[in-house]
Write a structure and sequence with these properties.
Elements (H helix, E strand, L loop, with lengths): L18 E7 L1 H4 L4 H17 L4 E5 L13 E3 L2 E3 L3 H13 L2 H7 L45 H6 L3 E10 L13 E5 L6 H6 L11 H4 L2 E3 L12 H16 L1
Parallel strand pairs: 1-2, 1-6, 5-6, 5-7
Antiparallel strand pairs: 3-4
């Protein structure tokens, strides 16, 4: 992947030294009709990320501060959670990423997580099974002060390859195109109304620079032959990762 391949690699073998991150909007949770559905959406994204060796999931709020849409406590059939859809999604993803034997110690049980235990396990490499004896196992250290961790893309959030996804993007066929070498790639997904609206609502962007094409190195349509009029974000994550990783090989 990227600059990770070397001369000793077997045909078809990948060296995952470069990293791939994905960015998903919180509005995909605000658009759900029940806690069950919201939890399932988070689980789908988590499974797709693990399957395709995603290094990091960035969750962003794409809500309109002018009218308060997609923000604030939300109720489903009498149940409520605190915060935005983005905070709900982040909590469920954090829960799923934590090895099962550490969840009781690290993750407070909140109403948001009531159904998270029913999701399919990630079965990620850092989730050691009972009968396995790995060289390293994640644990909890008591006492002392924890060191500050580095955030985003190996500390600094510097992505040298940013890929936006949209039905309005450019089509790159597998076998006819290959991404240039990179160290930290970020694949950005839009919300219910697409990546274009997510960028338009971002108050941190300058006026006149809120078009995805201006913010991404590549702006791609990863499912040009779609049969449905719409592709849900959780579906787009799975489709796009499969397509984009094929363009990286």
């Amino acid at each position: 992947m990227g600059d990770g391949a070397d001369g000793n690699s077997k045909p078809g073998e990948q060296q995952y030294r470069a990293t791939i991150s994905i960015a998903v909007p919180g509005s995909i949770i605000d658009n759900t009709q029940s806690l069950e559905r919201a939890t399932a959406v988070a689980g789908q994204i988590a499974r797709a990320a693990v399957i395709f060796r995603v290094h990091e999931i960035v969750v962003f709020d794409d809500w309109d501060s002018a009218d308060g849409n997609s923000h604030g406590p939300r109720g489903w059939r009498g149940e409520r959670f605190s915060g935005s859809g983005g905070s709900f999604l982040a909590r469920v993803l954090q829960y799923l990423d934590t090895p099962q034997y550490l969840r009781r110690a690290l993750i407070p049980l909140t109403p948001d997580l009531r159904l998270a235990g029913l999701l399919p396990p990630l079965d990620a490499p850092h989730h050691a099974r009972m009968h396995e004896w790995p060289e390293f196992r994640e644990g909890v250290a008591g006492g002392g002060e924890g060191g500050g961790g580095e955030g985003g893309a190996a500390g600094g959030g510097a992505y040298d390859l940013i890929i936006g996804t949209s039905e309005h993007g450019e089509v790159k066929e597998i076998g006819q195109f290959k991404f240039p070498p990179f160290r930290h790639a970020l694949i950005v997904f839009g919300g219910v109304a697409g990546l274009e609206e997510s960028c338009e609502l971002d108050e941190g962007l300058e006026e006149g620079r809120r078009e995805p094409q201006q913010l991404c190195h590549y702006y791609l349509n990863t499912c040009s032959l779609q049969g449905s009029r719409t592709i849900r974000t959780e579906e787009a994550v799975l489709i796009s990762l499969a397509h984009i990783l094929a363009l990286i090989k």
